[in-house]
Design goal:
This protein is mainly β. It is 5% helix and 51% strand. The strands form 7 sheets. The chain has a 4-stranded antiparallel sheet, with no helix packed on it. A 4-stranded antiparallel sheet has the order 4-5-6-7, with no helix packed on it. Strand 5 and strand 6 form a beta hairpin. It is globular and about 45 Å long. The termini are far apart.
């Protein structure tokens, strides 16, 4: 990196940190419910990187993925055999959740929810049954019955994990026209056109992006300028870079890069992927290796270069989240019942551990909300 560019990056990171001074956030943790967990938990996080457990926010079954809507309500999947999606309002002082309602996810084991850019529609991906559905969001935050439902069909090469479709995420495009659904079972990112007035979905043309056989698309993220997309392959613990055509909704694969050391022989299981708000770095979590992979994004080509790979300090880092200031990364350790905090270096993207991981039962999804 040229000296002038380095100074610009460091100045931007410093300015972000100054703006964040004195701020506090609530952090909601979604879980798998068992004898240790009863539902959604809440923690308090401040601009110095301190994290404090505030306890149970609401009892609900298997809230394995959470999302905060543009209108300030919290939504959770209930990853059960007959899946549901639940809506909550919350108190910004205590973090306690108030249940609003729940509706059928129209499938089995929903694993992801997201929103369109207007905050009028929620989208849910059903993993076990391989489908996606849309739901209206009412003015009071509650959910209406499904306005759209699409069932995926097909399989791929892995005889254990890809015998049928497994929709794993639903991500809305920056212009609110398209919905992208990485399907682990099909080795595709399926693309739909959104009718933002009716909340319906229709197949795009092209209808999907294709990944390598056995890749297992799980989650994806767009670069800051939306010209490139990054798709995480769960089954191979790699990231595939796509050059994105916003006009057509199509994409061309231009790079695949591993998230693991070359000599790693253990189980491969990629989990979460996120582009830093500044756009220079990409982070991805390895569950089998229990690490966070760090990549630098070439702003001209969109391609990735490995920067570092750091121990997650928790077991099975299924999910992580970058705080609203862009200064910290928090990793949820599903099998260590703890959340680890890292400081992000604004110039290099590297992660520095802060303190000891904070106990929290079975955390698998982290979401930040503004505190009072």
């Amino acid at each position: 990196m040229r000296r002038r560019d380095l100074i610009t990056v460091m100045a931007g990171a410093a300015a972000t940190f100054v703006r964040a001074q004195g701020r506090e956030w609530l952090m909601f943790a979604g879980t798998y419910t068992n004898r240790r967990s009863k539902g959604i938990y809440v923690l308090r996080f401040d601009s110095k990187g301190a994290l404090k457990d505030l306890g149970l926010a609401a009892e609900t079954s298997n809230p394995s993925f959470l999302a905060l809507s543009p209108r300030g309500y919290l939504y959770s999947v209930n990853e059960d055999a007959h899946g549901t999606v639940s809506a909550f309002a919350f108190d910004r002082a205590s973090g306690r959740l108030r249940f609003l309602n729940t509706v059928s996810s129209k499938g089995d084991a929903p694993c992801h929810v997201s929103f369109d850019r207007t905050g009028r529609w929620l989208f849910a991906a059903n993993y076990d049954s391989g489908s996606v559905a849309a739901f209206p969001l009412r003015a009071d935050g509650s959910l209406g019955e499904a306005s759209a439902f699409v069932q995926h069909h097909g399989s791929s090469v892995d005889k254990e994990r890809q015998t049928g479709p497994h929709a794993h995420m639903a991500l809305v495009s920056g212009d609110n026209r398209l919905l992208f659904v990485p399907d682990l079972g099909l080795d595709q990112v399926v693309v739909y056109r959104i009718d933002a007035q009716k909340g319906t979905l229709a197949a795009n043309s092209p209808a999907f992006w294709k990944t390598a056989p056995g890749f297992g698309p799980r989650h994806m993220a767009f670069g800051k300028d939306l010209r490139f997309a990054y798709v995480l392959g769960e089954l191979v613990a790699s990231v595939c870079v796509f050059r994105y055509d916003a006009k057509t909704g199509g994409a061309e694969a231009i790079q695949t890069i591993s998230m693991l050391p070359d000599d790693f022989k253990g189980p491969k299981s990629g989990a979460e992927i996120e582009v830093h708000p500044g756009g220079q770095f990409l982070y991805a979590s390895n569950r089998g290796h229990d690490s966070i992979a760090i990549f630098r994004i070439d702003q001209a080509t969109g391609k990735l270069a490995a920067v570092d790979r750091v121990p997650a300090r928790v077991r099975t880092p299924r999910n992580f989240a970058i705080d609203p200031s862009g200064v910290f990364l928090l990793a949820a350790g599903q099998d260590s019942n703890a959340v680890a905090v890292f400081r992000i270096d604004g110039a290099s993207g590297r992660l520095t551990p802060l303190g000891d991981p904070i106990a929290s039962p079975v955390p698998v999804s982290l979401v930040f909300a503004t505190a009072s």
